[in-house]
Specification:
A: 173 residues; B: 306 residues; alpha+beta; Thrombin, subunit H; 6-stranded antiparallel barrel; 4 helices
């Protein structure tokens, strides 16, 4: 069971990572753009139990740290995404109001996206990484949340189907 | 209960692993570097392919996003560019890149810099609040860390990381970007800091010196020309802060380089033996006089006037 899940999950994660690095990064989108890897990981985290969500967050964060454009120390995204995955699953998993409702999942993903970026900004500031002016930071934070709000509904059907394929769920959004 | 305990144990193990990675990285242990380099080597062909496929789409979106902001400017330039439009309409991206490249080579040639040209294959994600690009040349082309990167208008950034066939460039708009700047025509110096967009903050070092709107800034240069070669145009002062309590004057600077349209850049692999001084200051646009046409009317002889 674990081997099957692992062998399916690895290409999916690598595919999303490659798409982010080769396609999404071609566009300098206004307001900071979006991270498809983050939206993917957070969507899967909402749909998974806590321990799996933590592993999903860890794997996604590790890949985000491998990205050339990661400005902080290696492991920063890993830690933040791990905690975000665990937290979002802890709050959302098992709640039918969230699971049975696509809007609920999107809401969770967008809010989590915002808080993950805030956490990244705060830890970066603690670690001495320059983040620019406060205004620019706010523009980026809200810009990224708006992008996540626009993109999540488009990607949710695909991500939830992949999740169902991997974890053998009986239903998908 | 058992499941909850297992989840907590797993969480603790993963947190400790993450903290371990952060500690290793902050202490400068290069365990992960090889892995990161390997990943970049694998990803770069895909980025190149992505760049080729998506450049036309990227250019279209770039035009759309800048339309509102520069409407007035576009209207003003429309008349001047009317004769060029017909020529440009059928040109492809290669032509645009060639033009950028020519300007860069002109700039580098005037200063006597030896440069390596490279194409931009990826714009870094802004999720980390950084401003970076990836180019398709790396250590194999002689590029090293901390080399100046030029655009057709001036400084574009600095080489942050080098891989065998690619390199990561920190753009001058990055908030952690710092460069020593000199006001053209004077020896007044200051420090220019990126702000995350096309503007930058200039902090003068001497409180007895002054800066005014329209002043052109050039790079001050570093020891052995790394990370910055001297004399490269940076931008123009657009606003000056004259706060009475300030220790030294500060100003807002608009970069010459438009970071959202970078297609080709040049990396200065060897600086010139002499400081080019103000030789690279961009020429101010000159008004071309419109010729006046005078028409002389000569009355034709009337057939009735005999």
């Amino acid at each position: 069971m674990f081997t099957r899940q692992f062998s399916i999950a690895v290409p999916i994660f690598l595919g999303v990572y490659l798409f982010q690095e080769a396609v999404i990064t071609q566009f300098r989108l206004p307001g900071g753009g979006f991270s498809i890897m983050m939206i993917f990981a957070l969507t899967w985290a909402v749909l998974s139990p806590t321990e799996i969500a933590a592993v999903i967050g860890f794997a996604a964060g590790f890949l985000m740290d491998l990205s050339q454009s990661a400005s902080g120390p290696f492991g920063q995204w890993t830690l933040i995404m791990l905690l975000a995955g665990y937290a979002i699953s802890y709050i959302g998993f098992g709640d039918d109001n969230v699971h049975a409702n696509a809007i609920g999942i999107i809401f969770f993903v967008v809010v989590a996206n915002f808080f993950v970026e805030v956490a990244y900004a705060l830890t970066s500031a603690l670690l001495g990484v320059q983040l620019g002016s406060f205004t620019q930071l706010l523009i980026n934070l809200f810009g990224m949340s708006i992008w996540a709000l626009l993109v999540s509904p488009l990607l949710l059907p695909l991500f939830s189907r992949l999740h169902a394929l991997l974890f053998d769920s009986r239903s998908s959004i | 209960m058992r499941n909850g305990g297992r989840a907590r144990l797993l969480l603790v193990v993963l947190i400790v692993t993450s903290l371990f990675l952060i500690t290793l990285d902050l202490r400068g242990v290069k365990v992960i570097d090889g892995f990161k380099q390997g990943t970049q080597t694998v990803v770069s062909p895909f980025q190149r392919a992505g760049s080729v496929v998506f450049t036309p789409i990227k250019n279209f979106f770039s035009d759309v996003t800048h339309l509102g902001r520069t409407r007035n400017q576009i209207e003003k330039l429309e008349a001047e560019n009317a004769n060029l439009k017909s020529k440009l309409i059928n040109r492809k991206n290669a032509d645009a890149q060639l033009k950028q490249l020519k300007s860069i080579l002109d700039l580098a040639g005037t200063a006597g810099y030896k440069v390596v040209n490279a194409r931009v294959i990826s714009n870094g994600s802004s999720q980390s609040f950084s401003q970076t690009i990836t180019i398709d040349s790396g250590a194999n082309a002689g590029i090293k860390k901390n080399m100046t990167v030029l655009s057709q208008y001036g400084v574009a950034g600095v080489v942050k990381d080098v891989y065998p066939s690619t390199a990561l460039i920190q753009l001058a708009s990055d908030p952690s970007f710092r460069i020593g700047a000199r006001i053209a025509g004077t020896q007044q110096i200051g420090i220019l800091t990126g702000r995350g967009n096309r503007t930058a903050a200039l902090q003068l070092l001497d409180n007895s010196t002054t800066v005014k709107e329209g002043d052109v800034l050039l790079s001050r240069g570093s020891i052995a020309n790394r990370p910055y070669v001297p004399g490269v145009p940076l931008g123009v002062v657009t606003a000056v802060d004259n706060s009475p309590g300030a220790v030294a004057q500060t100003a807002t600077v608009r970069y010459y380089t438009n970071f959202s349209t970078l297609g080709v850049v040049a990396i200065v692999v060897s600086g010139s033996a002499t400081d080019p001084g103000d030789a690279l200051v961009p020429a101010k646009p000159r008004v071309t006089p419109i010729p006046t046409v005078t028409v002389f009317v000569t009355p034709s002889p009337s057939p009735t006037a005999k």
